[in-house]
Design brief:
The complex is a heterodimer of chains A (70) and B (487). Chain A is built from three helices and two strands; from the N terminus they run αββαα. In chain A, strand 1 and strand 2 form a beta hairpin. Helix content of chain B is 76%, strand content 0%. The chains are: A mainly alpha (70), B mainly alpha (487). The interface between A and B is large, with 36 and 48 residues.
Chain lengths: 70, 487
């Protein structure tokens, strides 16, 4: 694997860790009209989409289409 | 009015199937894989629509009713990471191999990968068996929805029957091309209607903030995860979305892509799509505890529809009913088609029954098989009182536990048929064991520890794959080279 692949894998692994928001486990505060745990995970999904955009740029298997065109 | 909207919607969906049939050539590859011509947008909509089921709408709202907003983090948040990662890592590679060697189904892919008839047959039985509970939740959801939006005038058995007949009709007419087109249409419908519905209902309830403030006062436990989930349950539930790598219907959609690049949009947009679809039902499920307190177990499957019919009856209820049907049918259709395809390719053709048949006759045998499965599922749905969320979780557990197979097939040159057989056998034995242990207990975890059965079965199936492979003779390099390029 190249360094770009490792960076992409590292970003995705970080997102996996961040999914486990133990620090908000018992927190039922309302923030912006919604429970804080829900706000956290909505934000988490937006960030995940951004991370996947980066991961695709870094580690997409471009050789597959090239091989198919041959 | 409500019923009329749903009826019009059903005819519209069948119409799309008919239009796509006009564009269909008579070849099996067009019927089963849309001639491998699906571009990025339709691929996203069909993969996403296929994966968003009654589980996402009725199951999630029903579960949120009991366990609160944590359902959003438990399932869609981690799915928004794991599923696109699975598509990213496995989808384009499986597509490339499938196109190069002309594969149509998972079974022929794996059978050829390890050169094992026994593995092919075993996988066929296991995959069909695991799809059945998945089909069941769709049929049940059709019944619940039609019953609720018509205030009980239409009995549940009619809704389930309607779903089966409509899906069977447009899949039969349009094949995978029709299914992909209908899925695209239906996915847009349920995403838009979900957003509109939650906006209308919450505005009539005084706004999201006001509703959450009432929930905080009356049922504060629903706004946090403490007491609703254990940390270990949360952690191990994250293995469930790996199931996307082994769904037979998902695999067929992968193979239908035009290019490997067609997957990029799906990978990048998936988390946003899943957030859009899951948020409204989770919010409505939690809000439902205010208007409909005291629902027990599977009764909460109907909370979403109850909320709509209470706060937005008439046209919106009809549209929402159509939206729920859209979500349900956009999964059922692909599942039905994949079962029919597997039967045609992996049983009829593979065992030589199809040698003297025309393409049309081969396809017809697949349809008869699917009709039989649907009748079986429909009959079970008449008696099942299980929670939709619960049933889906068991189905996903089995598929997720088979995940080592697809990873080994694409990345591990040393893997062997003995390893693959050991892996599938381990999944069968442990799944049956845990399913029987958890029967009737919706909060079942292994030994009450909080650990989801999927974590244990996946760990065991991974070990079985590795040990079985290492203890058997290395595979022929020539066969492996067809799937994994030599380094």
């Amino acid at each position: 694997m190249s360094s770009k692949h490792w960076i992409a894998a590292g970003l995705l692994a970080t997102m996996y860790v961040l999914h486990n928001d133990w620090w908000l486990w018992s927190d039922s505060r309302i923030v912006a009209g919604l429970p804080i745990g829900l706000v956290y995970h909505m934000t988490y999904m937006l960030v995940t989409a951004g991370v996947l955009v980066v991961a695709v740029r870094l580690a997409w298997p471009n050789h597959l289409d090239a091989e198919d065109n041959r | 009015m409500t019923l009329s909207i749903i009826v019009v919607y059903m005819f519209l969906v069948i119409g799309i199937g008919v239009v796509s049939n006009r564009l269909l050539s008579s070849s099996g590859e067009d019927y089963f894989l849309a001639a491998r011509s699906i571009g990025p947008f339709v691929l996203l909509m069909s993969l996403f629509g296929t994966n968003m089921t009654a589980f996402a709408l009725l199951g999630s709202s029903g579960e949120a009713y009991h366990t609160g907003i944590g359902v959003f983090g438990l399932m869609p948040a981690i799915s928004g990471l794991v599923i696109p990662t699975v598509f990213f890592v496995l989808g384009p590679r499986a597509w490339a191999i499938g196109k190069r060697h002309g594969y149509t189904t998972q079974v022929e892919f794996f059978r050829d990968r390890w050169g094992s008839e026994a593995l092919g047959l075993m996988l066929f039985v296991v995959l069909v068996g695991l799809v059945i509970p998945y089909l069941l939740i769709g049929v049940m959801a059709g019944g619940v929805t039609l019953n609720q939006v018509t205030a009980g005038q239409v009995p549940e058995w009619v809704g389930g029957l309607v779903i089966c007949v409509v899906v069977m009709s447009y899949v039969t007419i349009g094949g995978l091309r029709g299914t992909a087109w209908v899925n695209t249409f239906q996915t847009i419908i349920f995403m838009v209607l979900g957003a509109v519905t939650v906006a209308v209902v919450f505005s009539r309830m005084g706004g999201v903030g006001a509703v959450m403030a009432r929930v905080a006062a009356e049922a504060p436990a629903l706004l946090a995860r403490e007491g609703n989930f254990s940390r270990i349950h949360w952690f191990t539930y994250a293995f469930i979305p790996l199931s996307a790598g082994m769904f037979p219907h998902m695999f067929m959609h992968w193979l239908s892509a035009k290019r490997a690049d067609s997957f990029k949009l799906t990978v990048q947009a998936y988390p946003l799509c899943i957030a859009l679809v899951w948020l409204p039902p989770v919010l409505l499920g939690v809000a439902g505890t205010l208007d409909f307190p005291g629902l027990i177990g599977g009764q909460s499957n109907s909370i979403l529809v109850r909320m709509i019919t209470l706060h937005a009856p008439g046209v919106l209820a009809g549209l929402l009913g159509a939206g729920v049907f859209a979500a349900v049918m956009s999964s059922l259709d692909s599942q039905v088609l994949s079962l029919g395809t597997m039967f045609t390719q992996d049983v009829v053709d593979h065992y030589g029954f199809g040698d003297r048949m025309t393409d049309k006759r081969r396809i017809a045998t697949g349809r008869i098989f699917v009709a039989g499965i649907l009748i079986f599922v429909y009959v079970i749905s008449l008696f099942s009182q299980r929670s939709i969320f619960d049933l889906a979780t068991w189905s996903f557990t089995g598929f997720a536990a088979l995940f080592p197979i697809v990873v080994a097939a694409l990345f591990w040159r040393r893997s062997t048929k003995a390893g693959a057989l050991a892996c599938v056998s381990t999944v069968v034995v442990l799944w049956v064991y845990f399913f029987s242990q958890g029967w009737g207990n919706r909060a079942y975890t292994v030994g009450g520890s909080g650990v989801m059965a999927v974590a244990v079965i996946l760990a065991a199936s991974t070990i079985a794959m590795i040990v079985g492979s290492l203890l058997s003779a290395p595979p022929e390099a020539e066969r492996v080279n067809r799937f994994i390029a030599p380094s």
